[in-house]
Fold these 4 entries.
Entry 1:
Amino acid sequence: MATVSQWIEGARPRTLPNAIAPVVVGTGAAGHVGDIVWWKAALALVVSLALIVGVNYANDYSDGIRGTDDDRVGPLRLVGSGAASPRSVKTAAFVSLGIAAAAGIVVAVTTAWWLLAVGAVCILGAWFYTGGSRPYGYAGYGEVAVFLFFGLIAVLGTQFVVSGRVDVTGLMCAIAVGCFSSAVLVANNLRDIPTDTESGKITLAVRLGDRRTRTLFVLLIFVPFLITIWVGAFADWWALSGLLALPLGILALRPVVSGAQGRALIPTLATTGFAMLVWAVATGVAIGLS
């Protein structure tokens, strides 16, 4: 029987910035184009948090029963370590995804019915990332999914739900957050290239190889700051406050560009997530108040 602390670790709290950042900056983008409906912003945050916890438990379950996590560097895997049964982790995943669905239904009913279809796609994407007979995370499409779900859909979806419309500023913010979120996964998969290769998990990092994966990470870190400059120059100069996260971005880059391997890359995941959160808060507050 897993302890409470093990269940919390299994939920991978270091990934929570991937859920919080898009809602924060999406709410700021909503304030940039209209009034903010705060209770809808709160529901959007519930959806995002429950979805990412559900994804993490679903990945733990699916990777665990496949044996992918038998020899893994990084946070505790509940199934792979034997701390919890596959059935209990699967139940935790379904409960989390159910919470996301319930909150999402309220959002859709009070905003636009077609959001139900978007929510269904998100939940299916969460499960089939590593679940099912042909998981797309095992075919190198994980980063694309993260960019789509926790970048474009999460940011623009929040902006639309909270204000009733989207704009170019919101789109640029969505691209930036998508790059940050994808960078977190790229760093994770860079760390796991040896074990993923051995277990047959063909991530994008496995396909690209070590050197090109590191190059991709550098690009994903710098794109959000280039977008910050663009938005500041052509839309709202307050958006330049997002550059406050640049030192954290550079700090996240150092282990990657220096050739760090294995556990030495773990700090990069946390620092990248923190950089994304600082960027989202600084940018969201700035453009929202402007």
Entry 2:
Amino acid sequence: MTDSLEESKDEQWMQHAIQEARKAERMGEVPIGAVIIYNEEIIGRGYNQRETKQSALLHAEMVAIQEACQWMKSWRLEHCTLYVTLEPCPMCAGAIVQSRIPRVVYGAADKKAGCAGTLMNLLEEERFNHQAEVKKGVLESECASLLQTFFKQLREKKKRSND
């Protein structure tokens, strides 16, 4: 596959992850979304649901991985690609390694918890029995803007309630 074709496909699939992030945003959740692709088909979708369901485990990637595992009828997600709007945290990076996803594409870097290259890179750690190729910065400004707008509105809302 040519680089420009791959880039175009990555942007196409990231748009689907952004749609998932918008679902989280509508629910008042931090707008993070993920999709898992197998044979040019979405087999797992997820968006952040931590606040709504009060579960630390319900990150977008975790929800998408669970759905994809059910679709595949296997915990192994070999030959899949995960697209996520925000760089995976340590928990999600661990789940990616454990589920054997070979490729991860993310939009915005996470300076506070990013474990796909920003703070550390658990996905390409050679001491693990599985590694995932990482591609960063796909539709980065759009993914980052979703988060920046959400947190700006949250700060403004808190300020108004304190006045």
Entry 3:
Amino acid sequence: MAQEVTDATFKEEVLSSDLPVLVDFWAPWCGPCRMVGPIVDEIAQEQADKLKVVKLNTDDNLETASAYGITSIPALYVFKGGEVAKTIIGARPKPALEQELAEFIG
């Protein structure tokens, strides 16, 4: 299951992580976010040794969401070494998402 992060924990949990981190920027009212959420949780379990997976509620954490210019959700960002390494906007089926993440989980 993906771990929840907040404005307060984002730097420590994401930017300082040794592993690449997939951040699911989402909000409770977002239908596509609810569709992709369980897929993100599955990837979190299956790839735990290669990829850290976290979720950030954009409604509750405006500081981080605006710092990364999140205007469309779901937005999945991969951070590596504290930098954005990949951006995936919109919901995807699991095989497509795994393909997008192949360079980090392969």
Entry 4:
Amino acid sequence: MQDLKDISVDNETFYFEYFLGGDWKFLACVCGIGAVNADYACIWCKCARLDRCDTTKHWSILDPDNGARTVNEIEQYARSRKFNCKSKPIFPFIPLSHVVIDTLHLFLRVSDNLIGHLIRELKVCDSIEKKTKYSDGFCREKYRNMSRYETFLQELGIPFSWYVGKETKQLEYRDLTGPEKEN
């Protein structure tokens, strides 16, 4: 594939420019980068997890002098597992500037995390942040903030409900990702 640079049709030549797209997990795997929750999870740069919020540092996804990764660097670091490099990229002829993430999956993951934080805050407001077992069920009168969130979503037409797992006795909920999570 990397040898295919152009094609001629009717005395006209068309040149190829390769791009790679997909969700984060797929792209990281194909580009030789490890897990998304690792310290150096970014596919395009070597910004460490703890540096993400530091606005005094300048990072680039194109300029290697400002932390941008290169395909050659990933190949080199894969041997020592440095900067979360796990293996050689599958398509080393596609530059990282041509790797494009699927924004829908990225935004869905961000919204899932935000909803998770909201639910943790609701548990704090209802003073059950440390409760793990619900042997007596989920009393909606007792957990008012969580109950109001459930009602709010249902009034919007979003099928959401709290329930206690039959075997685990833990509080669970449909996480808005699909019907397989419904009780």
